[in-house]
Write a structure and sequence with these properties.
The protein is α/β, with parallel strands linked by helices. The protein contains 9 helices and 13 strands. A 7-stranded mixed sheet has the order 8-9-7-10-13-12-11. The protein starts with a strand and ends in a 10-residue tail after the last helix. It is found in: Cytoplasm. Its main location: cytoplasm. Keywords: Amino-acid biosynthesis, Arginine biosynthesis, Cytoplasm, NADP, Oxidoreductase.
């Protein structure tokens, strides 16, 4: 028997990529809606309520508008920021301790943000393990390909007459009020949000999230303990690789688009020669583990299917 799935918002970047992934899955029946129906929240709700599972690939306001009309029995995966810290919703990062079990029994799952996935993959284990205190003054820089800005930004970057400023990296979120900050703080268990600087660059997809650590603030914890702690935390997780302390590419550089087209995540740990500073790096594809890949992974868990089915 086929599993009925509806993608509300299938014309956006995330929705399109989810649809492409599911089109090749024989066990999935993708439900459709007319162009006029997509403009009517009640019509959309009817299709959602006829599905076993629905993806909401919508702006925050549109997700909040339709949810009250949805039957509680329908499994929902929301990709917006609307419910990532909301009561009654489960955060869709299965590799965090205990999270996979929560996802399995949930009917409301919020898919993590792309930048947030990278930061949380590093900060949450360290705080949870007691290696870094919850009040540590975290700083995070995150480099993303322009596809992270959706169809509008993709069009701007790929336009023939684009400004020359698009040729270089561009920092944004300069008011220090980025939409991913609430989940970065709450899911990581922090007492305050990190100082967060996102940067978009002239390549299609891929994300490199960096988190520096000042070891003198960590009460005698060593770089080796940090690296070993991360490795132990993610031991046995097929989608996340933790490299040993100091292991980096031969040329000493890590490119933001290295994992483009994959649904994996790789974590790197480096330290200064005297061990007083560390740099933690989370590398993945903002459209993979940072978006549609994470959504499909959560769908597989929710439906009791092979977790990595349809993942690269």
């Amino acid at each position: 028997m086929s599993i009925k799935v509806f993608i509300d918002g299938s014309s956006g970047t995330t929705g399109l990529r989810i649809a492409d992934r599911l089109a090749a899955r024989p066990e999935i029946e993708l439900l459709s809606i007319s162009a006029e129906g997509r403009k009517d929240v009640n019509e959309r709700a009817k299709v959602i309520n006829s599905a076993d599972l629905a993806f909401l690939c919508l702006p925050d306001a549109a997700s909040r508008e339709v949810i009250p009309l949805v039957d509680e029995k329908v499994k929902i995966l929301d990709t917006s920021t609307a419910f990532r810290t909301a009561p009654g919703w489960v955060y869709g990062f299965p590799e965090l301790r205990g999270q996979r079990e929560k996802i399995k029994t949930a009917n409301r799952v919020a898919v993590p943000g792309c930048h947030a996935s990278g930061f949380i993959s590093l900060a949450r284990p360290l705080v949870e393990l007691g290696l870094v205190p919850a009040d540590y003054p975290f700083t995070c820089h995150s480099l993303t390909g322009y596809s992270g800005g959706g169809k509008k930004m993709i069009g701007e970057y790929e336009a023939e007459d684009r400004p020359r400023t698009y040729d270089a990296p561009r920092a944004y979120g300069l008011n220090l009020h980025h939409k991913h900050l609430p989940e970065m703080q709450v899911v990581s268990g922090l007492t305050a949000p990190p100082i967060f600087c996102p940067i978009v660059d002239d390549y299609y997809s891929g994300m490199e999230v960096t988190v520096p650590l000042r070891m003198e603030l960590l009460n005698g914890v060593t770089p080796a303990q940090i690296a070993e702690g991360l490795a132990a935390y993610y031991a046995g997780e097929g989608q996340i690789t933790v490299h040993p302390l100091g292991e980096v590419p031969a040329d000493g550089m890590i490119s933001g688009n290295e994992l483009q087209g994959t649904d994996r995540m790789e974590l790197y740990c480096t330290a200064s020669p005297d061990g007083t500073q560390m740099l933690l790096i989370s590398l993945f594809d903002n459209l993979g583990k940072g978006s549609s890949g994470a959504a499909v992974q959560c769908m597989n868990i929710l439906l009791g299917l092979e977790e990595t089915a349809g993942l690269e």
